[in-house]
Amino acid sequence: CFRYDNLGVEVSIYKRSTGWFGCGWLYLPSFGLISDYHLCDDNPSCPIAPGRQIFEITIDPSILFSGFFKMFHNDQVPYQLILRVRNNRQPSEELLCMAFQTRIHY
Protein backbone atom coordinates (compact mmCIF):
# COMPACT_ATOMS: atom_id res chain seq x y z
CA CYS A 1 0.00 0.00 0.00
CA PHE A 2 1.43 3.39 -1.03
CA ARG A 3 1.52 6.11 1.63
CA TYR A 4 2.49 9.78 1.63
CA ASP A 5 4.94 10.63 4.39
CA ASN A 6 6.65 13.75 3.02
CA LEU A 7 3.99 16.41 2.45
CA GLY A 8 4.45 20.13 1.99
CA VAL A 9 1.86 22.82 2.63
CA GLU A 10 1.62 26.12 0.77
CA VAL A 11 -0.74 28.81 2.01
CA SER A 12 -1.60 31.88 -0.05
CA ILE A 13 -3.57 34.71 1.51
CA TYR A 14 -5.65 37.35 -0.25
CA LYS A 15 -7.49 40.40 1.06
CA ARG A 16 -10.83 41.52 -0.36
CA SER A 17 -10.32 44.73 -2.26
CA THR A 18 -12.62 47.29 -3.85
CA GLY A 19 -11.50 50.27 -5.81
CA TRP A 20 -11.63 52.12 -9.10
CA PHE A 21 -11.22 48.95 -11.13
CA GLY A 22 -13.95 47.00 -9.34
CA CYS A 23 -13.67 44.40 -6.65
CA GLY A 24 -11.47 41.35 -6.30
CA TRP A 25 -8.81 39.67 -4.19
CA LEU A 26 -5.47 41.34 -3.52
CA TYR A 27 -2.57 38.92 -2.95
CA LEU A 28 -0.69 39.49 0.31
CA PRO A 29 2.85 38.12 0.28
CA SER A 30 3.55 36.12 3.44
CA PHE A 31 7.32 35.83 2.88
CA GLY A 32 7.13 32.18 3.94
CA LEU A 33 5.74 32.92 7.41
CA ILE A 34 2.62 30.74 6.99
CA SER A 35 3.71 28.66 4.04
CA ASP A 36 6.29 26.11 2.97
CA TYR A 37 6.24 23.86 5.98
CA HIS A 38 6.21 20.08 6.24
CA LEU A 39 2.85 18.63 7.18
CA CYS A 40 4.24 15.37 8.55
CA ASP A 41 6.58 16.96 11.11
CA ASP A 42 5.03 16.27 14.54
CA ASN A 43 1.66 15.35 12.99
CA PRO A 44 -0.05 12.15 14.20
CA SER A 45 -2.14 12.10 10.98
CA CYS A 46 0.90 11.08 8.93
CA PRO A 47 1.66 9.02 6.95
CA ILE A 48 -1.42 9.41 4.78
CA ALA A 49 -2.72 6.61 2.58
CA PRO A 50 -4.54 7.30 -0.70
CA GLY A 51 -8.31 7.60 -0.45
CA ARG A 52 -10.69 9.54 1.73
CA GLN A 53 -8.86 10.87 4.78
CA ILE A 54 -9.29 13.24 7.68
CA PHE A 55 -6.17 15.05 8.80
CA GLU A 56 -5.49 18.25 10.69
CA ILE A 57 -3.59 21.25 9.43
CA THR A 58 -2.98 24.17 11.77
CA ILE A 59 -2.57 27.60 10.21
CA ASP A 60 -1.65 30.45 12.53
CA PRO A 61 -2.22 33.74 10.67
CA SER A 62 -1.42 35.78 13.79
CA ILE A 63 2.26 35.38 12.86
CA LEU A 64 1.54 37.15 9.59
CA PHE A 65 -0.64 39.89 11.09
CA SER A 66 1.85 41.09 13.67
CA GLY A 67 4.11 44.03 13.02
CA PHE A 68 4.08 45.41 9.49
CA PHE A 69 0.88 43.68 8.31
CA LYS A 70 -1.03 44.89 11.35
CA MET A 71 -1.09 48.37 9.77
CA PHE A 72 -3.15 47.05 6.84
CA HIS A 73 -5.46 44.71 8.75
CA ASN A 74 -9.14 45.47 9.28
CA ASP A 75 -11.49 43.09 11.16
CA GLN A 76 -14.33 43.91 8.74
CA VAL A 77 -12.46 42.91 5.57
CA PRO A 78 -12.75 39.28 4.44
CA TYR A 79 -9.67 37.27 3.58
CA GLN A 80 -9.28 34.28 1.31
CA LEU A 81 -6.82 31.53 2.11
CA ILE A 82 -5.79 28.99 -0.50
CA LEU A 83 -4.23 25.87 0.91
CA ARG A 84 -2.26 23.45 -1.26
CA VAL A 85 -0.82 20.14 -0.08
CA ARG A 86 1.83 18.58 -2.30
CA ASN A 87 3.97 15.49 -2.31
CA ASN A 88 7.51 16.73 -1.56
CA ARG A 89 8.99 13.65 -3.24
CA GLN A 90 7.30 14.78 -6.49
CA PRO A 91 6.65 18.54 -6.04
CA SER A 92 4.49 18.76 -9.16
CA GLU A 93 2.01 16.31 -7.59
CA GLU A 94 -0.66 18.38 -5.87
CA LEU A 95 -2.78 16.25 -3.53
CA LEU A 96 -5.20 18.86 -2.20
CA CYS A 97 -6.25 22.37 -3.14
CA MET A 98 -8.76 24.16 -0.95
CA ALA A 99 -9.92 27.78 -0.74
CA PHE A 100 -11.91 29.35 2.04
CA GLN A 101 -12.95 32.85 2.95
CA THR A 102 -13.09 34.23 6.45
CA ARG A 103 -12.62 37.27 8.63
CA ILE A 104 -9.56 37.23 10.84
CA HIS A 105 -9.96 38.54 14.39
CA TYR A 106 -7.10 38.64 16.87
- Helical content stands at under 10%
Number of helices: 0
Q: Structural class, please?
A: mainly beta
Global outline:
elongated
Low-confidence parts, pLDDT < 50 over ≥5 residues? none
Task: Give me the strand/helix succession.
Answer: EEEEE
Protein name: ML domain-containing protein
Organism: Syphacia muris
Outline the fold blueprint.
Blueprint: E1 7-19, E2 22-28, E3 37-38, E4 79-87, E5 94-102
Antiparallel strand pairs: 1-2, 1-3, 1-4, 4-5
Descriptive account of the structure:
With 106 residues, the protein is mostly beta strands. It has one domain. 0% of the residues lie in helices and 38% in strands. Strands 1, 2, 3, 4 and 5 form a five-stranded antiparallel sheet that branches. Strand 1 and strand 2 (22-28) form a beta hairpin. The chain is elongated, with a radius of gyration of 16 Å. This is ML domain-containing protein. It comes from Syphacia muris.
Brief description of this entry?
With 106 residues, the chain is mainly β. The protein has strands spanning 7-19, 22-28, 37-38, 79-87, 94-102.
Spell out the key features of this protein:
106 residues; mainly beta; five-stranded antiparallel β-sheet; elongated
